[in-house]
């Protein structure tokens, strides 16, 4: 193929040669085929979420979330609260520095297991900390020497949010895994763990039964209201109940 675009238009001034030393006049020709060195990284994240369980709410409703991981978590159980408005842009994507900084500022104190879980589950949109409270642990598999779960480890727990229509707490089981690789039996193991978590949620004395999960849709924009009960400033404009304490938000 002739490389016409490399030819200069007539009358166009010739460029000054950059090197005036010993270099011979350039006659480098483009090879017919470029020998390319290939690079690739395949990252794969996956997860599962159960139906919701409607809970009779009370002052202890949130405090009982960690107990729903009893017998299933192999690590210490950590509870991640919904994010207040100053972290409303937090995203675990390092090429977006402002969002990544918010994310790190919000989560750097958490354990490596929980941070890994949030990266996986937020990346696949299985949880949303604009309104979810998430009790989390390592459910299956190994951690590396820095304490981070391996790609075939399964993390997860119970996510809860407040139903905008009724103010009830809705809990659901959430599991996830992934990274640089995949293993054939991970999906099946994850299904079993999801069932175990849902069984634990349903066994709670506050459980009222299964319900469809209608997750609140956070509105883009300036965020919501300050809770008169706990002072939490919600990043979630449509929130009717405080994402943190579950009390009714008063509109001004
Ligand atoms: Zn509140």
Summarize the structure in words:
- This protein is of the alpha+beta class and 252 residues long.
- Helix content is 16%, strand content 19%.
- It has three helices and six strands, in the order ββααβββαβ.
- Strands 2-3-4-5-1-6 form a six-stranded antiparallel sheet, sandwiched between helices.
- Strand 4 and strand 5 form a beta hairpin.
- It is globular, with a radius of gyration of 26 Å.
- The relative contact order is 0.19.
- The model has no long low-confidence stretch (mean pLDDT 87).
- The site of zinc ion has 8 residues, from loops.
Attribute tags:
252 residues; alpha+beta; 6 strands; 19% strand; binds zinc ion
Topology:
Layout: E1 44-55, E2 78-80, H1 97-107, H2 112-123, E3 133-140, E4 154-162, E5 169-179, H3 186-202, E6 207-211
Antiparallel strand pairs: 1-5, 1-6, 2-3, 3-4, 4-5
The structure holds zinc ion.
